What we know:
CATH class of the largest domain: Alpha Beta
Distance between the termini: 29 Å
Number of strands: 19
CATH architecture of the largest domain: 3-Layer(aba) Sandwich
Mean pLDDT: 94
Strand order of the largest sheet: 5-4-1-13-14-15
Strand content: 15-25%
CATH superfamily of the largest domain: HAD superfamily/HAD-like
Structural class: alpha/beta
Shape: globular
Order of helices and strands: EEEHEHEHEHEEHEEEHEHEHEHEEEEEH
CATH topology of the largest domain: Rossmann fold
Amino acid sequence: xxxxxxxxxxxxxxxxxxxxxxxxxxxxxxxxxxxxxxxxxxxxxxxxxxxxxxxxxxxxxxxxxxxxxxxxxxxxxxxxxxxxxxxxxxxxxxxxxxxxxxxxxxxxxxxxxxxxxxxxxxxxxxxxxxxxxxxxxxxxxxxxxxxxxxxxxxxxxxxxxxxxxxxxxxxxxxxxxxxxxxxxxxxxxxxxxxxxxxxxxxxxxxxxxxxxxxxxxxxxxxxxxxxxxxxxxxxxxxxxxxxxxxxxxxxxxxxxxxxxxxxxxxxxxxxxxxxxxxxxxxxxxxxxxxxxxxxxxxxxxxxxxxxxxxxxxxxxxxxxxxxxxxxxxxxxxxxxxxxxxxxxx
Length: 345
């Protein structure tokens, strides 16, 4: 993993990349406003690599997302934006060909992509849809969820219709804090009918496949703020990843990250894309990053040197804990290791 590469091989997280694929909520913005340092850091990155933006948020069209990003000071065209509705339509096309009638639970972003793909859209189970596609929109009501449940009563293995969800993020960062995400709405339908949806967005592979194909990326870096969707999804797709601490997941979550959800790079904010990424050195069970050193002895995680950088201490601690092959719950962890001075919405 990139976390253990030597600085002479990877000078910065951007070295050797042909594309940067960035999540949006918690990476570029929180609510309508840009996160600190995000715009200038991405603009600088665009001087040397292709930028693409990947979002699980299904409520907006690619054009509206591009307009929002452009208003923040980025140069973005609609084709630079990969959305979970686009991935959902690609996945749906392998199950139900257009121009079939599909029941949409979601907003403009999902309806727009369904129309582009040639499908007929309904909001009622009475129209006998050939599939249900569900995505987030702030205006979704109980009646919308009920229509999905009515259409999905019959299990798929008994002849029931397919159910695709754009994503199952439990939460979404907003300018006022953290709010329920599409996963809570999908869960409501699941509870009613006892079925599971097929997921098109992160952490599943379809959305990453759309992105890498569109941008022709062979060596991309994906940047996200969530371990369970962003980093896990990149891992499943075989893409190197960076976790930026400006969104949902915090240092505690990094230390507790299970195999398959561990980022190659841990960044304070997007300025770190342009900084030399420090080498992690292991010697006799001691993991050192910069001036920080951490080891694990029996059930104790021990800080041998704090150094002068909290992010390097977190990187060293993560390397030491991950190397044990055990979950963090098996250890006593000093609070200093997961101190959280980093920006978040």
